[in-house]
Amino acid sequence: xxxxxxxxxxxxxxxxxxxxxxxxxxxxAGTLLxxxxxxxxxxxxxxxxxxxxxxxxxxAEHLDGHRAVSIVLLEPGSEPRxxxxxxxxxxxxxxxxxxxxxxxALLADAVDxxxxxxxxxxxxxxxxxxxxxxIADVSLAELASHTAGIxxxxxxxxxxxxxxxxxxxxxxxxxxxxxxxxxxLAVSPTGRGEMSYSNHGVALEGQLVAKAAGIxxxxxLAERVAEPLGLTSTYAPILPGKLHQDAHRGHTRAGLKAAPxxxxxxxxxxxxxxxxADMALYMQAVMDxxxxxxxxxxxxxxxxPDDGRSVAVNWMHDPIDERDPTIWHNGMTSGYASFVxxxxxxxxxIVMLSDTARSLDAIxxxxxTGAVEL
Length: 374
Fold this sequence. Notes:
Blueprint: H1 29-37, E1 49-51, H2 53-59, E2 69-74, E3 81-85, E4 92-94, H3 99-113, H4 122-126, H5 140-144, H6 158-166, H7 177-185, H8 199-213, H9 217-229, E5 250-251, E6 257-258, E7 273-275, H10 276-288, E8 310-311, E9 316-318, E10 326-332, E11 337-343, E12 349-354, H11 361-369
Antiparallel strand pairs: 1-3, 2-3, 2-12, 4-7, 5-6, 8-9, 9-10, 10-11, 11-12
């Protein structure tokens, strides 16, 4: 999935400074990618260019190792520019931890509806179920900013996680919503108050918001974000049997086919599928604050050290050019990669979705900072 803190292997084309290459992969993704790299690699061939020729011409050389890629460029006062390689704007991709931003929208929308506040605690939502838990007083704001001290993967599930990852299966599939909550209640937080990226924490966040609303997460996503914004191809399948028939298997970094991720109860942290066309609508609404949750992407919950990363409601803020922040999130499953973000100074935004688990961070940042001109 996506990770604002844990490192994973990243491609670094062009002159982007090392400090600006953003890490956002599944937990211990470096180990996972190392394991899959031990198997025989499959040569990748970038798909045929489609759409905006200026975009495809500029980006092709930066996408070695990728196959199907969907790209959207968003600029102030202009219609979205679509491009792709072997993918049109309607092709669905796993968006991995970019899903966390949708969970942020649901949280902010629930705050606007008066169902919760950012200071609502685990115990406020779960009542006596949280009695005796060390995370009973953890707030939704802490979960949405990765400062709750909850590990990224529940300790008791780590062996299953690594075994499933090695076999290129969905490592989150065995735990439903109630198990995600129960595992979180058993946690003793460490480093609370400091940012430490947590898939488990955001999975809990999403399930708590769903409980407060009295609606399952996947239904909440459909009714409060997808439908209002006209995102006709965006959904959280939760279980493999609910995947659309057009769901493609992605590829590991080594080129091996990977099973789809639906993530069951952990879906709020990374189980959404979407398209370039839908993500363009979503990003426009987030950037201008017109969508569910309003301006939640700019509502800072945790401010980092000087010149460091801050966190809004499930969005990362980085001072990439030391003036205006870049607001972003990325994602990676075992078979897909994604990046969404924009630069506050220029208003330029980008969506990049790939069916190969190779980081898109560096090239996306070069587009946003103008190092690569489109």
